[in-house]
Amino acid sequence: MSQSVTDCESRPAELPAHVVVIGLGYIGLPTAVCMATGGLTVTGVDVNPAIVEQVRRGNAPFEEPDLATALSGAVSMGHLSADTKVPVADAFIIAVPTPFTSDRTPDLSFVMTAAESVAQVLRGGEIIVLESTVPPGTTERVRALIAAARPDLQFAHSGDGDDRRLVHLAHCPERVLPGRIMIEIATNDRVIGGLTPPCAARAAQLYQTFCRGELHLTDATSAEMVKLAENAYRDVNIAFANEIALICGELSLDVSEVISMANRHPRVSILRPGIGVGGHCIAVDPWFIIDVAPQQARLLRLAREVNDGMPGQVARQIVITARKRHARRIACLGLAFKPDVSDVRNSPAVQIVAEVARALPDTEILAVEPHHAKLPSPLDELGNVRMVTAADALSSADVAVRLVEHSAFRSLGLPGRVGQVS
Q: What pairs with residue 400 in β-bridges?
């Protein structure tokens, strides 16, 4: 089942009187703000009381362009509130984290806890949308959990049409780029997968309230796989570039020149190699596919291993260079997981700095991060790492390495590519 909803500018005839968004993180809060700005009554729910209190005051708990202004406006208009408990509502969006465990299997505990909290307040007729990135089959698992907790309710199944007494479930994965979330959450196309066609249609009505992109309707399991496939595709291409860089290093070749020349072929577009993959999407999502199909996902596993190994490779090169030069200070520029954001989740730069600091306990590591005022964990626990400005770091360091391509570093005139020691 696949179809598109192209008229996203028009408002559906029936809108939910009250929407609850569970999880006020990088996806949940912008989603709640966009719906509230569009005129819906929205309650954001989070287990962290400090985050709830910040949202109630109209303050953004994290940095994201345009979020603070939109959030303040939505709260002041009375369209957005926040709580630690899930209230009764007509629509629920679950946007909680989905990390993996130490053995790289998906941790769905946050999703299931959120589903349990929703089950307690259902009356019948609601739409529940899972936005969290999850392994294929998770939306059905959520339905089964809620159905077991609420045997008094009925759930949508094929052929039931628009019977509003039924509980509908769907999956709508996010497709946004940190640093552009408030733009892309409204303009990007969305894939909406329902457990049934009526479920997908009900979810589409909700997303039409703020989505100006095209809505593509399908089944829930396909939608779950689409999101994972998108990020696995990017991970494999990054791994290819990184492996070419490793091979060029072994052969004493300039990888930048090799890739530049190769990309002059009309059908070749190799990415720039880097220091690894960070954030909560590309570094995590391929493992969800590997978990459900380990025998088939051989390429994805190898790509993950290549990219996961890059921070260690870079750290070792820094340590070797520092020892050769008897360096007393090393400048490490950038800690975020990608350029021009403050997000350090799964950041390979943080991993590199930590490994270098532990390998060289008598060397001072000068960390530079224009988007952070203080050291993130675990660097704040290491005695030989301190945060300084770029000017201070470069004026006193014996070894320097640019780990993130922040715009603020472009005027520094640093030679080489990201991860190259100078």
A: 331
pLDDT in tens, 254-274: 999 999 999 999 999 999 999
Written as six digits, the tokens of 104 are 């790289």
Would you give the DSSP letter of residue 380? G
Alpha-carbon distance of 352 to 98, in angstroms, equals 24
Strands (E), 85-164: 91-94, 127-130
Closest CA to 263 of 237, 285, 233: 237
- 62 in Cβ contact with 98 (< 8 Å): no
Residue that has been written with the tokens 């066609």 in this structure: 197
**Whole-number pLDDT of residue 353:** 97
Q: Are 148 and 39 in contact (CB under 8 A)?
A: no
Question: Does the structure show a pLDDT above 70 at 25?
Answer: yes
Domain with CATH 3.40.50.720 in the chain: 3-229, 274-412
Q: Phi and psi (nearest 5°) for 154?
A: -110, 150
Cα torsion 173, 177, 182, 188: sign? negative
DSSP code at position 102: T
CATH class in words for 3-229: alpha beta
Annotated catalytic sites, by residue? 227, 281
Q: CA quadruple 89, 130, 37, 166: dihedral positive or negative?
A: negative
**What CATH number has the domain spanning 274-412?**
3.40.50.720
Say if residue 30 is preceded by a cis peptide, omega within 30 of 0.
no
Task: Give the orientation angle of helix 28-37 with respect to helix 67-76, to 10 degrees.
Answer: 50
